[in-house]
Specification:
By secondary structure, this protein is of the alpha/beta class. It has helices at 39-52, 80-89, 120-132, 136-151, 159-169, 172-182, 187-202, 242-259, 279-282, 287-299, 319-322, 338-349, 359-363, 402-410, 415-418, 427-468, 472-496, and strands spanning 4-10, 16-21, 29-32, 57-61, 103-107, 114-115, 230-234, 271-276, 305-311, 327-330, 370-374, 386-390. α3 (120-132) packs antiparallel against α8, α4 crosses α7 and α5 (159-169) runs parallel beside α16 (427-468).
Length: 502
C-alpha cells in the first residue's frame, strides 16, 4: 500500500483491511494490552511497515524480542503454517512474504549495541534532577552549578565533570562568591547531589554520559534501497534502572523537539518513536515534568515525529497525553478486580463505538494476536473501532543470536563513529589544572614567606649581637664602676668588723 501501513483484517469476516495512514501517523498512537496478548508482535509489524515506506524508526527492546527484525522469517519456522493461515484468512496471502529489516542496534551500556551517549550539558538540570530524585532546593543548587559552569566556560560532558564542579563549589571562597552572584548554595545540598551521583554511577549511568554524543540525524537514516532504518535500543538491562530508562527516552524526545524544524503534517513521518513500558515515564513525575512531557507530545507531531506508547493499560498514561493519541490498537485486558474493570471501561470509552458489538465486553474476549483497532481517517477523525486479526510479521519472530548481532554491528554505518569513547578537555581537566596552579602558587608564596621570616630572624640576630659589643668609653666606665664598688665594699666591711680607722 503506497500511502498506508497494513495492520490486519477486521470486520465480521475479518478480511476488511485495517490500515494506518502515513500522513496521519504523526498524530501519535498507543498499543495497549495485558502481558502475552501480542503487543510486541504488533510493534514489530508496525516497525516493518514504516521501514518499508522509507520511514526511520526508533524503539526500545525491553525483552530482546525485537532484535528479530534484523533477520528474515523462514518457511521452516514452526509457526509458518499458522502465519500463512492467518494471512489467508485476512486476505493478505498474496502480499505476504518473509524479509528482513535494516537495523542498527544501540545500547546505553555498549554491550548489545553501539554506545549511545549524551553529555551532562545536553541532559540539563531538570532531567538530571528527575534522574537523581532531587528535591526542589537541590534542583535549584544544581541549576546554579550549570549557570556557573556556562559563565566560566566549563564544559560538562561526563559525570566526573559534574562531580569536580560540585567539589569546586564546595570550597568556601568559591561558594561565598557563587552565593552572592546566583543565590545561596548550601553545602548540605551539594553533598546530597554528590551522593545521588554515586547512585547514578552504581546504576551504570557513567557509561551513558560522555562523548561522542548521539547525533539525532543518525537515527533518521535510510538504507541503500530506500527503506527506513529501525534503530533498536537494547533495554534488557536498562529497564532495571527505570529512572535512567525513562529519562533517556524523554531526553531523546526533547532533543528531537528542540532540533527539528516545523513541517506541519507531512506525507509521511520523518521518524516514528515507540516508547515501550510507557508507564515508567510518568511514575512519580513532578507536575512541572508532566507539563513538559505533555507539551513535547502535543507539539512534536508538527516536527514530523510520531510517538507511540506501548503499555499494559491506557490508564497508565495521563488523560492529557491520551488525548493526543489518535491511532489506537488495544489488545486484551483482564478484568478480575474492580480496578481492572474500571480500566476496561476507560479503554472501551476511548474508542468510537461499533454498533455490531459491545467494545467493553470484547476487550476481555480478545485472543492472542487480536486487537481492537481504530486509526485516523483523512480528515483526522477516528474510524469506528474494529475487532482485528493482526497480520503476521515478515521478519523473524523472537530474538537473534549473539553471533548474528555481532555481525550486524560490525557492518553498521555508525560503528566507526560511536564505538570508541572520547575524553576531551572539559570541566574536570580545567578545574584540575587551576587547582594545580593554585597549589604551586600557594607553595611558592609559602616558600617566599618562609624565606622572609628567615631574613627577619637573621636581622634580629645581628642586632642583638651588635648590642652586646662594648665601646672603649663603656668599658672604662664599667671598670671604674667595678673598682669603686670593690673599694667601697671593703671600706664598709672594715667598718662593720671594727677594723676601720677612726
Amino acid at each position: 500500500m503506497a500511502n498506508a501501513i497494513y495492520v490486519g483484517g477486521g470486520g465480521p469476516e475479518q478480511n476488511e483491511a485495517q490500515t494506518l495512514l502515513l500522513n496521519r501517523a504523526n498524530r501519535h498512537g498507543i498499543i495497549a494490552g495485558a502481558t502475552g496478548t501480542g503487543k510486541t508482535v504488533t510493534l514489530q509489524i508496525l516497525a516493518e511497515g514504516f521501514s518499508n515506506q522509507g520511514v526511520p524508526v526508533f524503539c526500545a527492546d525491553v525483552k530482546g524480542d525485537l532484535s528479530g527484525l534484523a533477520k528474515s522469517g523462514t518457511e521452516d519456522f514452526k509457526l509458518h503454517d499458522a502465519f500463512m493461515s492467518r494471512a489467508t484468512k485476512i486476505g493478505f496471502a498474496e502480499d505476504y512474504s518473509y524479509h528482513d529489516t535494516p537495523v542498527v542496534f544501540w545500547d546505553v551500556f555498549g554491550k548489545k549495541g553501539h554506545p549511545v551517549r549524551a553529555t551532562i550539558s545536553e541532559m540539563g538540570p531538570t532531567l538530571l534532577s528527575r534522574l537523581m530524585d532531587l528535591t526542589e532546593t537541590q534542583e535549584g543548587v544544581l541549576t546554579v552549578a550549570f549557570e556557573y559552569a556556562d559563565d566560566e566556560g566549563l564544559l560538562l560532558l561526563d559525570l566526573k565533570d559534574l562531580q569536580k564542579l560540585l567539589i569546586h563549589l564546595g570550597q568556601k571562597e568559591v561558594r561565598d562568591d557563587v552565593s552572592l552572584r546566583y543565590g545561596n548554595v548550601a553545602t548540605a545540598s551539594l553533598s546530597a547531589i554528590q551522593r545521588s551521583l554515586l547512585g547514578l554511577e552504581r546504576d551504570g549511568a557513567e557509561e551513558f554520559f560522555g562523548e561522542p554524543a548521539l547525533d539525532l540525524m543518525d537515527l533518521m537514516r535510510t538504507s541503500r534501497d530506500g527503506r527506513g532504518i529501525v534503530n533498536i535500543l537494547d533495554s534488557t538491562r536498562l529497564i532495571n534502572s527505570p529512572k535512567l530508562y525513562s529519562t533517556f527516552l524523554l531526553w531523546l524526545l526533547s532533543e528531537l523537539f528542540e532540533r527539528l524544524p516545523e513541517v506541519g503534517d507531512p506525507d509521511k513521518p520523518k521518524l516514528v518513536f515507540f516508547f515501550d513500558e510507557a508507564h515508567l515515564l510518568f511514575n512519580d513525575a513532578p507536575k512541572a515534568l508532566l507539563a513538559k512531557i505533555e507539551q513535547v507530545v502535543r507539539l512534536i507531531r508538527s516536527k514530523g515525529v510520531g510517538v507511540y506508547f506501548v503499555t499494559q493499560n491506557p490508564r497508565d498514561l495521563p488523560d492529557s497525553v491520551l488525548a493526543q493519541l489518535g491511532n489506537r490498537i488495544q489488545h486484551a485486558l483482564r478484568a478480575y478486580t474492580p480496578t481492572e474493570r474500571k480500566g476496561v471501561k476507560a479503554a472501551s470509552d476511548s474508542f468510537r463505538p461499533n454498533p455490531d458489538f459491545d467494545t467493553e465486553e470484547v476487550i476481555t474476549q480478545l485472543g492472542t494476536g487480536e486487537a481492537l483497532v481504530s486509526t485516523l481517517d483523512e480528515k483526522s477523525a477516528p474510524h469506528v473501532v474494529q475487532r482485528t486479526l493482526i497480520r503476521p510479521p515478515s521478519s523473524r519472530l523472537g530474538p537473534i543470536t549473539d553471533k548474528e548481532r555481532a555481525e550486524i554491528m560490525a557492518d553498521s554505518p555508525v560503528a566507526a563513529t560511536y564505538d570508541e569513547a572520547i575524553d576531551r578537555e572539559s570541566a574536570y581537566e580545567i578545574l584540575m589544572e587551576k587547582e594545580e596552579q593554585a597549589a604551586k602558587e600557594a607553595e611558592r608564596l609559602a616558600k617566599e614567606e618562609e624565606k622572609a621570616k628567615r631574613e627577619i630572624e637573621k636581622k634580629k640576630s645581628r642586632t642583638k649581637s651588635r648590642s652586646r659589643r662594648q665601646t672603649p668609653a663603656e668599658a672604662a666606665v664599667k671598670t671604674a664602676t667595678r673598682t669603686f664598688a670593690r673599694d667601697f665594699t671593703r671600706y664598709v666591711l672594715r667598718g662593720i668588723l671594727g677594723s676601720r680607722k677612726r
